[in-house]
């Protein structure tokens, strides 16, 4: 089985399990950063999801002081994964779904396979709104299921 179907299946399992979300560094409305409302450009440190509307990035740090930007890889138009130390070692999976027909929101789901500190940032390039999801150091990454992350359209 190739890596992409396994990752997609893993994301689906996290969603179906109904686990609690990881700590979410935001209030009811996303923070708006004027500089963040810029076109999404795919590179090793950024995913562009939902047709480029959402820019995803992540950073990590270890208890030993190692830190850096995650390398992000696209799986589909709404899903990608990240690795930190080795491309064969997937650390987290993230997707942004269009829930506009359900609750007038875009949804952010993520699952981690790590216990290092992770700051996962999702930016709405239409308006600069952003959410930062933080996994604390030395804590198993709890699934993120934010079904009110960003307003539509």
Can you lay out the helices and strands and say which pair or pack?
Layout (H helix, E strand, L loop, with lengths): L2 H15 L6 E2 L5 E2 L14 E3 L4 E8 L5 E3 L1 E4 L4 E5 L6 E10 H4 L1 E8 L4 E8 L4 E7 L8 E8 L2
Distance between the termini: 36 Å
In percent terms, what proportion of residues is strand? 35-45%
Cα radius of gyration in angstroms: 14 Å
Structural class: mainly beta
- Mean pLDDT across the residues is 84
Number of helices: 2
Please report the total strand number as a whole number.
Answer: 12
- Helical fraction equals 10-25%
Order of helices and strands: HEEEEEEEEHEEEE
Q: Quick one: overall form? A: globular
Unreliable parts: 1-27
Number of domains: 1
Model description:
This protein has 153 residues and is mainly beta. It has helices spanning 3-17, 100-103, and strands spanning 24-25, 31-32, 47-49, 54-61, 67-69, 71-74, 79-83, 90-99, 105-112, 117-124, 129-135, 144-151. It has one domain (3-151). Helix content is 12%, strand content 44%. The strands form two sheets. Strands 1, 2, 3, 4, 5, 10 and 11 form a seven-stranded antiparallel sheet that branches. A hairpin with a 6-residue loop joins β7 and β8. It is globular, with a radius of gyration of 14 Å.
């Amino acid at each position: 089985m190739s890596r992409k179907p396994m990752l997609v299946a893993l994301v689906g399992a996290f969603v179906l399990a109904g686990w609690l979300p990881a700590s979410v560094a935001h209030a009811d409305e996303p923070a708006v950063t004027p500089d963040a409302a810029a076109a999404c450009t795919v590179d090793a440190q950024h995913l562009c999801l939902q047709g480029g509307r959402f820019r995803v990035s992540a950073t990590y740090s270890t208890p030993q002081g190692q830190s850096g930007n995650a390398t992000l890889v696209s799986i589909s138009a709404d899903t990608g994964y990240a690795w930190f130390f080795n491309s064969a070692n997937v650390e987290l999976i993230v997707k942004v779904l269009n829930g506009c027909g359900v609750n007038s929101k875009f949804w952010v789901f993520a699952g981690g396979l790590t216990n290092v500190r992770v700051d996962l940032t999702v930016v709405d390039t239409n308006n600069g709104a952003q959410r930062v999801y933080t996994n604390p150091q030395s804590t198993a990454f709890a699934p993120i299921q934010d079904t009110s992350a960003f307003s539509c359209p």
